[in-house]
Specification:
Helix content is about 35%, strand content about 30%. With about 250 residues, it is an alpha/beta fold. It folds into two domains: about 130 residues, 3-Layer(aba) Sandwich (Rossmann fold), CATH 3.40.50.2300; about 100 residues, LytTr DNA-binding domain (OB fold (Dihydrolipoamide Acetyltransferase, E2P)), CATH 2.40.50. The protein has a five-stranded parallel beta sheet, with helices on both faces. The protein has a five-stranded antiparallel beta sheet with strand order 10-9-8-12-11. Strands 13-14-15 form a three-stranded antiparallel beta sheet, with no helix packed on it. Strand 9 and strand 10 form a beta hairpin.
């Protein structure tokens, strides 16, 4: 019986590799909630059972690739570990569109697999504990204009007004302040809900910007220049809304 609370979905169409992954996860005492070999079943299980982690092959049966599934379910905040034959930078960059936790190339070394799973699982557990902490303590962050961020095992109370921007990158969420940056266990979607919408704009799927620190907007290059000269991308989908909010539409 599994002793690890992390619920894992395997999406893999090679039977031999399905068995290999299931065996390794069983030895590591992880909880496998299902094994599917096609995109339709993968989408159904992801939406209905909401696993904590998905081990995803890229080339699978069905209408969608593993990458497309990752992109379509990114809003759910479920981390993906891609395990694939594609050993190239282009495919890795495409994988970043989803909530990429790791990218592994077959054949996977068992020790590398175990260390990667353990690191990702610990991050998931920390996120869940952090959310439970917030819920159980009942801190009304909105009225206090503060955000509780766990960083290096410490909880930091951060003023909204001190946050320049928030960035999601390589499975982590970075909260950039005036003089330092913190790695948060909360996802970008969680922070978007906690931060006041009249002060923070989602400019891109990976960025939240504090309006008061916007120094300039370059609509030709689709970037916002912050006071610290950091350039934040503007997605095509958000450009019109941002221009309207900034009274430039």
């Amino acid at each position: 019986m599994s002793t690890n609370p992390i619920r894992i979905l395997i999406v893999e169409d090679e039977v031999s590799y399905q068995l290999d992954l299931e065996m390794m996860l069983d030895e590591m005492e992880y909880n496998v909630i299902g094994i599917v070999d096609n995109s339709e079943d993968a989408m159904e299980v992801i939406h209905s059972q909401k696993p904590d982690l998905v081990l995803m092959d890229i080339d699978i049966k069905g209408k969608l690739t593993g990458l497309e599934i990752g992109e379509k379910t990114a809003h759910l905040g479920i981390p993906f570990i891609y395990i694939t034959n594609h050993n190239n930078r282009e495919m890795y960059e495409k994988a970043k569109v989803s909530n990429l936790a790791s990218y592994m190339v077959k054949p996977v070394n068992p020790i590398t697999f175990e260390s990667t799973l353990d690191a990702v699982a610990q991050k998931i557990i920390d996120e869940q504990k952090n959310q439970d902490f917030l819920n159980n303590k009942g801190i009304n962050l909105d009225t206090q204009n503060k955000l509780l961020i766990k960083h290096n095992k410490l909880y930091h109370l951060v003023q909204f007004k001190d946050i320049l921007y928030v960035e999601a990158s390589d499975g982590y969420t970075y909260v950039h302040l005036k003089h330092k940056s913190l790695i948060s266990n909360l996802r970008l979607t969680d922070l978007e809900q906690l931060l006041p919408p009249d002060k923070f704009i989602k400019t891109h799927r990976s960025y939240l910007m504090n309006i008061q620190f916007c120094k300039a907007i370059d609509p030709a290059d689709n970037v916002i220049i912050m006071e610290n000269n950091k350039q934040i991308p503007i997605s095509r989908a958000m450009k019109k809304k941002i221009m309207e909010i900034m009274n430039l539409g």
